């Protein structure tokens, strides 16, 4: 197995361990994970920088201020104040409510949702700072929780149900981050495409002093007609204005 694959697998294991430990790993865990790769100190610093971007602390959890915006911190404080109004339950009560939820009791399922709302918040902190708003993460987790409490009937033990709900919440947040990253990637590609067409249109306008055709832009950019037309449409008035200017000059 090549070094890149070993590194990717080790990094994934380390990230998963950090999530299980509240987004925190020890220096020892970090070095043990990559012990077989003969890392230099510079490479370890690069890994630490990556972990910091993922809101993972070394030795102690990263503070909220390091990876949440001021707006997100204000939202979190307000939301937690609302959750404080919910009645507390003992572990025994939590188990009884979980078992009733598994039996299909609608009132118990609603109560179980309330019980798990604070856990959704704690899980959201593990995924914060990855290009999505904390409020959206909590919203996705709450939706998964609401769906999850109705899907516990096939389980036998309360601890299984609680574990299943936790996993559904985490999966929902991970899926949301992945979808957001894919959308951001598509947006960047479209922006690059628009800029490429606009730059070439501007260059041709200055050179030819006449109306520029889609075919000419296709030849100059190597892009398809559909890609050119999509770029023109998505640019609003930007590219059209360039074409109009070329026609007037």
Alpha plus pi helix count:
12
Question: Going across the major beta sheet, what is the strand order?
Answer: 1-2
Q: What would the CATH topology of the largest domain be?
A: Rna Polymerase Sigma Factor, Chain: A
Biggest beta sheet attributes:
2 strands, parallel
Question: Would you give an account of this structure?
Answer:
By secondary structure, this protein is mainly α. The protein has 3 domains: 3-62; 68-182, Rna Polymerase Sigma Factor, Chain: A (Orthogonal Bundle); 184-248. It contains 12 helices and 2 strands, in the order H-E-H-H-E-H-H-H-H-H-H-H-H-H. Helix 6 packs across helix 9 (158-208) and helix 8 crosses helix 9. The N and C termini lie far apart (62 Å). The relative contact order is 0.07. The model has no long low-confidence stretch (mean pLDDT 84).
Task: Give a short summary of the structure.
The protein is an all-alpha fold. The protein is 74% helix and 2% strand.
Task: Throw out a few tags for this protein.
249 residues, mainly alpha, Rna Polymerase Sigma Factor, Chain: A, 3 domains, two-stranded parallel ribbon, 2% strand
List the helices and strands and how they pair.
Elements: H1 3-20, E1 24-25, H2 27-33, H3 41-53, E2 57-58, H4 64-67, H5 70-83, H6 91-102, H7 106-127, H8 134-148, H9 158-208, H10 214-221, H11 225-234, H12 238-248
Parallel strand pairs: 1-2
